[in-house]
Specification:
The protein is mostly helical. 88% of the residues lie in helices and 0% in strands. It contains eleven helices and no strands. Helix 10 packs parallel to helix 11. The longest helix is centred in the middle third of the chain and has 42 residues. It starts with a helix and ends with a helix. 15% of the residues are buried.
Length: 347
Amino acid sequence: MFDKQFLIKLRNFAIFIVIYTLIFFLFFSTLSYTLPFVIGIIVSLISLPLVKFLKRKLKFKDSIASLISVLLVYIIFILLLIGIFTKITYEIKQLVSSIPNVNTFIPYIQEYFDKLRLYYDAIDPAIVQKINEQVTKFAYSSLDISLSILNKLLSIVLKLPVIFLILFVSLLSSYFFSKDMLNFRSSILNIFTPDGKKKFSLIVDELNKSLTGYIKAYSFIVTLTFIETYIGFSILNIKYALILSIVSAIFDVLPILGIGAVYSLVALYYIITKKYIIAFGILILYLIVTIVRQILEPKLVSASLGLHPVAVLAAIFIGIKAYGFVGMIYLIFLMVLYNILKKTKIL
């Protein structure tokens, strides 16, 4: 019924899907054990251009060039974290010291309750009871969320020794991976035929280009979110614009939360304090940032990965709907790898 060549391609595609899925889920299921080594590989790849420069231009030994390059990457990263943490800590202290007393909000809350009380007599008691039940449920769920956040913070504090151990192992693995990175590819290539070497090199180069492009694309999107939020909040004269912009950029990476979590809380604060113009300005800013992101994300990611924008948009939407951020990553890199294997005529 079907063409034989088509059936062969279909079989190869099914085998590719199964192998890719197994490797993908094996990687994420064992990530808690392999995290230091994954970090080591990433840092060694980042430091690779500097290692090549130190070896070829300045004639450094492999071990010295790798040690200097890895330490430089970690030092820059740590200094950036210290700078950001210091600024955030300062703004948090300022924020906490300037938070108005609870009694400040009581007149506003009382006014809203007084207005609601006027409508209570005209409302069916059953509806009032339902409202009260929903408010009670909301209060309990808010308490549960607060307790879970506190438990998470406590667990992070308890895991500090483990975090330091991960950093130490990551540093050592980064050094050893960096030292052997140049020879590692040559060792792998020796197991292939001349044609296999070309295909393997092409696959590695394409994967490296796609991964780098993907990281650059999302780094640009997150940075743009930060800049837009910071400029918008500064124009609206919102205090602690920097820390709120950083939190928005971080939340922008999290599909479940998103920047709406930050914007809605800030807008709610200004609604309670009856600064409706600022609250409306925050809503307009949120719409602008969201629209810009929705327009740029498929185009930037598709350009960096060499895929059609509609395919990327479908992968983002279906992946997030199905399994969140991990599902999006799964579908995007499934298409990327399939595209690379088609280029090399393996599939």
